[in-house]
Amino acid sequence: MTAAVTVRVPAKVNVQLAVGAARPDGFHDLANVFLAVGLYDEVTATPADELRITCSGPDAGQVPLDRTNLAARAALALAERYGIDPAVHLHIAKDIPVAGGMAGGSADGAAALVACDALWGTGASRDELLAICAELGSDVPFSLVGGAALGTGRGEKLTPIEVGGTFHWVFAVADGGLSTPAVYGEFDRLTAGMEVPEPTASPALLAALRSGDSGALAGALSNDLQPAALSLRPPLADTLAAGTEAGALAALVSGSGPTTAFLVPDEETAEKVAAALLTSGTCRNARVAVSPAPGAHVI
Ligand SMILES: C[C@](O)(CO)[C@H](O)COP(=O)(O)OP(=O)(O)OC[C@H]1O[C@@H](n2ccc(N)nc2=O)[C@H](O)[C@@H]1O
Ligand SMILES: Nc1ncnc2c1ncn2[C@@H]1O[C@H](COP(=O)(O)OP(=O)(O)OP(=O)(O)O)[C@@H](O)[C@H]1O
């Protein structure tokens, strides 16, 4: 029997997040262009007497260790489908900012699924794993596939996107998180009484990803949730300004925030912008990363 399986899983940034009107089920239809970035959590699955979650890393204190943890929910969902006793210890080595709009919890859900699938030898197909991911959350399927993809529906229906080069990023980690439902709720409040257009992927953005051209991508980045995140957390505007002044090609809120993302031309500029963000006092931490990155995979 396999003794332990470790799965590495990336964070994400939304290079385009086009948000439609609220649906009757409370979700919003999206044109969500996901790009996986090289900040990783690792989930290790080991046989145990009962389902147990532990977490290490600087933000570990903010991660729930009960059955609400997306890693636990993933293990339970797979076990139920295959009639397996979910007796597993899942250890999360967390490096992705918590509640930061970088899909950290979703990443752990996808990683736990891949780890338990390997540990238990369920032999689930890719499509079955993707279906479980979609039940766990809108962002979870992308954490499984990585790379770059267009998410439609509530973000769970994925079409892979070609990426023609490496993009360099700096991520400014804010103090405290933002609740994803609260940010979508603020989007609804800000757009009340307005005609919200059908979300569609930007051809210029897709072309920029395909060509690997950072300058073109900088001109095409967009996030419809940014006004809502800034409305709930006005000081984020200072973080965006600090990174732009330091030489970023473009700045935007990552997903529902409050992490802010800075696209930079190269590694050298990334280090410079990260240092300037740290000294600006407008964020708690600054992380350098490249994209695209592979989805959840056994290491
Ligand atoms: C902001 C993003 O991170 C961008 O990728 C995602 O849209 C959020 O994905 P997620 O965290 O996996 O969200 P879920 O766990 O599926 O949903 C949490 C809550 O976010 C809101 N939500 C989420 C996705 C979506 N397309 N429309 C929504 O309105 C709903 O209030 C929902 O109850
Ligand atoms: N494995 C997990 N890691 C982190 N948070 C988790 C996990 N499982 C459940 N959560 C809960 O989910 C909340 C959101 O955390 P997460 O790090 O996923 O946010 P996020 O990056 O903003 O998500 P997204 O970008 O998908 O909207 C946390 O406040 C926490 O209570």
Structure notes:
This protein has 299 residues and is α+β, with helices and mostly antiparallel strands. The chain has two domains: 157 residues, Ribosomal Protein S5, domain 2 (2-Layer Sandwich); 125 residues, Alpha-Beta Plaits. 35% of the residues lie in helices and 28% in strands. The protein contains ten helices and twelve strands. The strands form two sheets. Strands 1, 2, 3, 4, 5, 6, 8 and 12 form an eight-stranded mixed β-sheet that branches. A four-stranded antiparallel β-sheet has the order 9-10-7-11, with helices on both faces. A hairpin with a 4-residue loop joins β5 and β6. α6 packs antiparallel against α7 and α9 packs across α10. The protein starts with a strand and ends with a strand. The mean pLDDT is 97. Bound molecules: 4-diphosphocytidyl-2-C-methyl-D-erythritol and adenosine-5'-triphosphate (ATP). 4-diphosphocytidyl-2-C-methyl-D-erythritol binds next to β1, β2 and α5.
